[in-house]
Amino acid sequence: MYQRSIEIAVGVFMILGFLGLAFLAIQVSGLSMDSQKDTYKIYAQFDDLGGLTVRGRVSLAGVTIGTVSAISLDKEVYSALVEMEIYQEVDSLSADSVASIQTAGLLGEKYVSLSIGGEEEVLGDGDTIFDTQSALNLEKIIGAFASGDISL
Amino acid sequence: MIDFIIKIGRFGLDYSASFGRSGLFFLHSFFGLALSPKGLMLLIHQLYKVGVLSLVIIIVSGLFIGMVLALQGYSILVDYGSEQAVGQMVALTLVRELGPVVTALLFAGRAGSALTAEIGLMKATEQLSSMEMMGVDPLRRVIAPRLWAGFISMPLLALVFSAVGVFGGLLVGVDWLGVYEGSFWSNMQSSVDFKEDVVNGIIKSVVFGVVCSWIAVFQGYDSEPTSEGISIATTKTVVYSSLSILGLDFLLTAVMFG
User: Fold this and answer.
1) Residue A98 Cα, gap to closest chain B Cα (Å)
2) Across the strands, what pairs with A60?
């Protein structure tokens, strides 16, 4: 009987440990079963990323529709090439969409914001967005303001 | 002068001999766990003594550390108007650092010292040598279950610690200080990554589990078979474990997050 109660206690301990793991996985790190959504890749070229990083958000009208999966330098035109994985269910992005890098809040993380154009043709896997806006560079604006290039 | 050099030399030789002994000892007992029903019974008994009985201290300290983190973080973050980031701060600190490290330190004090004292007393009362006389390998019968119980318990305890700590942070941050619960969780979920943070924390605690229980059982097994020897060995266990936990934590952090 003594041995049995020890076994039960050890079993409860193990279950507690795995419950802790499940809690940390699901509630704390937000890991969900459908996190492996089907995606397709689109590309965009920017002159200045201004701190955009891999795993950054891609959003349309404020809703997250994908993530930045890779960033590389295009050696031919010396601009940044951003690879984005867009969820398969968002399959109607028009070909003349505009991608711009924006900041969440004044000092928050950088993310890619898409705005839809008017063309009927849609972006498919491997397509590139040509119409892009680089990150708003606060230092440059302040610099331009200080040197008198722009005035209020 | 010559005496002094001889002393240094002897000290060095003794030290490397004890390192070698502990290595052999580790190998023998690591692979010596008997997987028969009787051996598993011994393991379960040790899991009870090492793991289950440490649960209370782990849960209580986890709760309080989570609550303190939330309180401290809130008082700093509120100056910048970003008090909803308190959840993210509590979770990251716990999962990456405090969970594994504090659990290991508590484990060394609560379970490691007990293991050393128990094995040391077994040696002093010649229970170990009488086992050998009867043809029972004390490494397999006594040491291996204790070692493995340490390996298994430590990550589980660290997970419980982190989970309870996050709950403590929730208690103080949301229920007491009035951070909005939705942003508390969403901030946390967007910044904590399962592979980067949780799994790396588990890897840390596995390493600490191996080191802590290795030091504890070896110090007991290698102690002088006197009452003074046992007290020295118990002290050594706590000191060596704590130092190697903190040192290894720096190394692992530098490799994982550096």
Assistant:
1) 26
2) A63, A114
Whether residues A14 and B159 touch (CB distance < 8 A) is answered with no
Spatial contact of B165 and B65, defined as CB atoms under 8 Å apart: yes
**Residue B31 CB contacts under 8 Å (≥ 6 apart), including other chains:** none
Interface touch B156/A14, C-beta < 8 Å: yes
The distance of B159 to chain A (nearest Cα, Å) reads 5
Rounded distance, CA B189 to CA A57, Å? 14
- Please determine, for the modelled complex, whether the ipTM score is greater than 0.85: no
- Look at residue B83 in the predicted model and tell me its pLDDT: 81
Q: Which two tokens stand for residue A10?
A: 């050890």
Instruction: Name the one residue in this structure whose structure tokens are 């077994």.
Output: B122
Residues in B closer than 8 angstroms to A27, CB to CB, are: 166, 185, 189
In one-letter notation, the amino acid at residue B80 is Y
* Chain B residue nearest residue A13, CA to CA: B52
Question: Virtual CA dihedral for A132, A135, A139, A142, nearest 10 degrees?
Answer: 60
pTM above 0.80, yes or no: no
Q: What are phi and psi of A119, to 5 degrees?
A: -70, 155
How many whole angstroms separate alpha carbon B4 and alpha carbon B218?
A: 29
**Contacts (Cβ under 8 Å, ≥6 apart) of B11:** none
Let me know if B134 is exposed, middle or buried by CB neighbors in 10 A (0-12, 13-18, 19+): exposed
Low-confidence ranges of chain B (pLDDT < 50): none
User: Which residue in this structure is represented by tokens 């430590």?
Assistant: B154
Over residues A45-82, the pLDDT tens digits come to: 888 887 787 777 888 888 888 888 888 888 888 888 88
B167 alpha carbon, distance to own chain's centre: 22
Taking CB atoms and an 8 Å cutoff, what residues of chain A touch B164? Answer: 20
A54 close contact with B: CB closer than 8 A: no
Smallest CA–CA distance, residue A82 to chain B, in Å, is: 21
Amino acid at A20: G
What is the distance between the alpha carbons of residues B199 and B196, in angstroms, rounded to a whole number?
A: 6
